[in-house]
């Protein structure tokens, strides 16, 4: 059985309210998963998405002694941690090279436990590049982070509307910025009035600053990364 898993995580404030989302494909079926944490970080949510997805398939029965899963993530932290760092941390009794405590030790221990009997092939995706499955996971994660209740699909692969290929949705930089701005939930709003740039948590706050004022610019961001891109754009960098 070939298992395919897409994952993503998000946090508002980092730390702040966070969410995770995943798509788990197993033997002709698809299950979307997701959850929320009131106070967390982006890395914890990225890793939680992987753990919860692996837990969901860990009890599947196959003819093979090991479950095989392809895990697609846009988190270098998760991929490098799972492939390299976690094994070094175990050898060093959960200390980093600088003798510091390993961050998110509790989650990495859970990952080791759930992945012990699995053969995992890791795939690093470019974040926010228009890959439909990655974008869907991002939407699930951000909606949970915003304390919304996204409708999660569970059913036949043949009826699933999200393209699960990893190349068909790749977009140019300008296209992906436009897609993020128009389709994803707002992370913040960035305004510039007479050369002074500010960020706002709500549209009402942003609108109050720019309405009726000349020489202004404003734009919605969908993530911290997007917010920084907009600020640089407004600064002309």
UniProtKB/TrEMBL annotation:
Catalytic activity: Endonucleolytic cleavage to 5'-phosphomonoester
Cofactors (names): Mg(2+)
Broad enzyme group: hydrolase
Keywords assigned by UniProt, alphabetized: Endonuclease, Hydrolase, Magnesium, Metal-binding, Nuclease
Annotated PROSITE patterns: RNASE_H_1 (PS50879)
Subunit structure, interactors included: Monomer.
Protein name: ribonuclease H
